[in-house]
Amino acid sequence: MNLKKVDFVWINRNHKSFEWFIKLLHNLETEQLKLPEYKRILNFHMYITSATNRTDIRSLLLQLALDLMREKTDRDFITGMRQRVHWGRPDWDEV
To answer: Are 59 and 23 within 8 A, CB to CB?
Structure first.
């Protein structure tokens, strides 16, 4: 079998649920980054569903702070990975 692309979608209620599996995903991401871009087949899509209300000022401020941290470090604050964790539920048509 010759895989061309693998999309790994992980949906959790809160950030704590990412802890048990993140080391493996981080290692997979690191290995993918060593390959030329055309050989990278693994895409991560991670979501936290507990912050779905975009009108809640706390959610907006948290998202803004996480975006600023990501800009400075090029890493997601929650997972430490380069792939960003998204808030809410996936848009399945986009994924």
So the answer is: no
pLDDT digits (tens, 9 = 90+) for 21-78: 888 988 999 999 999 998 899 988 888 887 655 566 776 777 778 788 888 888 888 7
CA–CA separation, 19 and 11 (whole Å): 13
| Contact criterion met (CB below 8 Å) for 47 and 85 | yes
| Secondary structure element (H or E) that encloses residue 64, with its range | helix 57-73
CA–CA gap between residue 34 and residue 25 (Å, rounded): 14
Query: Number of helices (H) and strands (E), helices first, in the chain?
Result: 2, 3
Distance CA 29, CA 23 (A): 10
Please check whether residue 15 is in contact with residue 86, taking contact to mean a CB–CB distance below 8 angstroms. Answer: no
